[in-house]
Amino acid sequence: MLEPTIGQGLRATGRRMTRTRKAVLALLERTHQPVSASEIFSQLQEADVAIDLVTVYRTVNVLKELGLVVQMDLHQENQSRYELKEGRKHHHHIRCQICGKIVDLLLCPLKKLTKLIEERTQFVVDDHTLEFSGFCPKCQ
Amino acid sequence: MLEPTIGQGLRATGRRMTRTRKAVLALLERTHQPVSASEIFSQLQEADVAIDLVTVYRTVNVLKELGLVVQMDLHQENQSRYELKEGRKHHHHIRCQICGKIVDLLLCPLKKLTKLIEERTQFVVDDHTLEFSGFCPKCQ
DNA sequence: TGTTATTTGCAATAGACTTGCAATAATGCT
DNA sequence: AGCATTATTGCAAGTCTATTGCAAATAACA
Lengths: 140, 140
Ligand SMILES: [Mn+2]
Ligand SMILES: [Mn+2]
Ligand SMILES: [Zn+2]
Ligand SMILES: [Zn+2]
Fold this sequence. Notes:
2 copies of one chain form a homodimer.
Chain A: H1 3-12, H2 19-30, E1 35-36, H3 37-46, H4 53-65, E2 69-72, E3 81-84, E4 92-96, E5 102-105, H5 111-121, E6 124-135
Parallel strand pairs in A: 4-6
Antiparallel strand pairs in A: 1-3, 2-3, 4-5
One zinc ion binds next to strand 6 of chain B.
Chain A binds a DNA duplex (30 and 30 nucleotides) through residues 11, 14-21, 36-38, 51-55, 57-58, 61, 78-80.
């Protein structure tokens, strides 16, 4: 239940904690796969929460600005997915090419590589994305 | 000049080597950054090659099916980019968050990790994407 | 409870990409 | 070279995700 802290974060930036933002946050909290805007929309509809798809988009964008949510664009998908950052550490994903199942990979092998890349390219590295894909146990 | 070989690959699948396909292939051959469909379109227009944007899309899709081109969806971009596979080995990219410059990273640190992931997740790993982002020398 | 600024829903819009279809052009055969 | 066949092209229209304008609704705070 991270709602009060987030409420403070919202107010600190002149924003408000609303019924729909609570609903989106609660859904993200109880969801263990990264979800798309349309999935958030339809899952809230099933839960009898009245919300417009536009509001879902605006909400995830606000949560992204506050640093509470990460947006990810997985390969072979045509829509972004969103995952709560709070309480979860940096990690990556693997996606099944058949059924689309997404599983967390609780690892990151890229710390060391970053320095090497900065030396080679003269870039300052700020972020990275890493995603595996293949066939899940059920789809093999 | 890989055109004749590709011509064979096309004919082997009941396809034809056309003026527009030659033009797209030639552009991909001489381009050293991954290019988007609209970039292919406008660059060919500047070179006085008459081609429709739709044809560019259809062409890169055919080349993808033939395994001659890789499609990549980089973070913070809203369009796919395409790169010729022929003669270039598996590698990854870093992208500047300011100017969008993309540089090849001629490395891949993920061979070993694949086995570990297969053991942990029971997936069969087939592919991966890796991308760094940051600030290029000019934009720092 | 009343005031004010933020947020919401609805409609319209933007932008990447795809699809239907008739006209065009590449291929293979004579 | 000429012809028949069939893939390919261009144009228009459509699809899908995501964004924007604006008036109505509502959260924040006294
Ligand atoms: Mn995750
Ligand atoms: Mn490259
Ligand atoms: Zn990582
Ligand atoms: Zn790799």
